[in-house]
Sequence to fold (736 residues):
Amino acid sequence: MSEHTKIKPSHLSRIAIVYVRQSSAAQVEHNRESTARQYALTQRAAALGWSTDRVSVIDDDLGLSGATTHQRSGFARMTAEVALSHVGLILGLEVSRMARNNADWYRLLDLCSMTDTLIGDADGVYHPSLFNDRLLLGLKGTMSEAELHVLRARLDGGIRNKAARGELRRGLPVGFVWGEADGEVLVHPDAAVSGAVRAVFDHFAEFGSARRVWLWFRSEALSFPLQTHARAPMRWVAPAYTAIHAVLSNPVYAGAYAFGKSRTEQFVDEQGLVRKRIRMLPRGQWAVLIPGHHEGYIDWPTFEANQQRLGTNTRPQPHKPGGALREGAALLQGLATCGHCGRKLRTHYRGRQQAPGYHCANKSVVGGRGVYCLNVGGVQIDEAVAKAFLAAITPAGSSAAVRAAEQLQADHDGALGQWRLAVQRAQYDADKAERRYRAVDPDNRLVARGLEAQWEQSLRVLEQAQAELAQRQQQRPHPLTDDARRRLLGMGEDLSRVWHAASTTSRDRKELLRTLLDEVGISVYREQYRALVKLRWRGGALGEFDVSLPRSRPATVRTDEDTIGLVRRLAEHHDDATIAGILNKQERTTARGLRFTQNLVGNLRRHWNIPRRATPAEPVTGELMSVRQAARELGLAASTIHRWLNDGFIAGEQLTPGAPWRIRVNDALKRRLVQDAPEGYAVMQEATKRLGVTRQTVLHRVQRGELDAVLVCRGRQKGLRIKVLDDQPTLFDEAS
Fold:
């Protein structure tokens, strides 16, 4: 069957689409012959019987790969037209121009078969609903996908071979540039850039924490270089924590060449769309890793040690000690492990003094309840470990104190060096802006005006950098004198005084402890009132000692009388849960310093024979509403509700002082709200005159039910009205 035989009038009544695509922008620019041949398919459509105005060219996908339909708007538009039965013929130079993916290709074939749409290429015209034509089109799609696979394999093989030799040029992190030779990597020639990178590694060696390095940069107001890609200009910005961590964890800074550290994966999101994500691989799965490839900022053993230190700063496994330093007085946080099961001990704080304690997360079922494997106070144990640590480090204390002072001076000098480089960089920018301004033609006022503004801005930046440098030079600590050195040596001999000094923080003590200790195992023996502490020192040395635990004291612990009296009063109106909420709102605690719970209130009430709240014989009528709900129900403003709550005209309920008010809206309350003032009811001013009392006294009588009152809600006469009888006794009559 010839191609003209397959073309029916029904096909000619619809449009013909010429689909044009090139795989990359480079092909569009350099392989123009292929593009011209694809555009020439319009002439073939005319030869097959379509008029020129009925031929549509779709070239939206020029420069896009045919491996997938992702971001191929032209293919999507063509598929939509086919689905709407608007297309009689699709023309492409070859099948690979339309799709190199069998899933996309067969989806198009199915649509063309259902809508009676022809497909044409350089070899002929095919009808997807015919068996032979569909078989041939399927073979062409399979061969196109196989060709794509072969091309990818060749490209990937070439890239991997070049990467295996360390010659593949990819993006380098900040602090490195590519040299002229193949695979040559050089340290950045800008001293400010390389100095900032070296400062990261120097201070990590001192602090041992990426976060502490980041905080040091922020405290010194130092900038860090940022370059998004090789051709982008270098920018100096306030460093982010991720930037500092990326420098510490990148093997390139250790002189290694790395390739294939990540893998691109496809997944289906919640909306059913196919998306891609980049997954970082563990080091053992990297495609290429060549240590010693180029000059680095640190050596490879230092990099390995840094990675181990960074790993210990993250949340460790249940049976491994470590973790980043955290706030709190618990000295063994991150170091303590359970001597019974080997799990890492967790830290807790109890009482008003926030005394530290340690417990094991592993629970055993005892008597139907989960009981911690270990739960012990940490005050005595922390003191014993600190004593053992000070005894071990005392011989080196003298020199350590001196080194600490010298390190402080070195840190400040390092920051000053970075600011001096910042001043030099600002001076260079200002000189460059001046040269550009003086080189411009003075008659070109628009350009000269812009260059002058840039010069002025550069001078302002230079002035700020110089002022900051001068200020920090004034704050530079003085070098150690002989007298200061002797005093520090004397202080170092008494490390206990330094350890317990008010200026020494809990974080400092924890960091000092980790310099010598790797792990502290704790085993508790309650029957013997002791704890066995095992120390594993750096280097593998072991030590152990017993710590006496405090015995339980028989002295009774009582809740204060004020709290007991309050519970006795509240129990007449509220249940245990509500009472617990009220006591906690008032910041009351149990005799042991704990917050009240429903069970603790119940135990306290039963211990002191306080009866439970009796259920009312008659249920309380009305619905409890918030102030806003009651205002809408009664037709009043919320401010009016609050005002009459304070005055006692409207009764409200609170779970505890300070809690939101709740109004019980019933028929009795609604009857007190009227549209017009009844006969015999006077305004507040007249009522006070007739009764001879103050406004507050009138409101109290209304609250106690001694006076009848209504509230006029609308009109000019709105407000409170009090019923005052002529023979109503006055305050002085009552007193007599």
The chain has six domains: 3-161, 176-313, 336-395+498-548, 396-497, 561-607, 626-735.
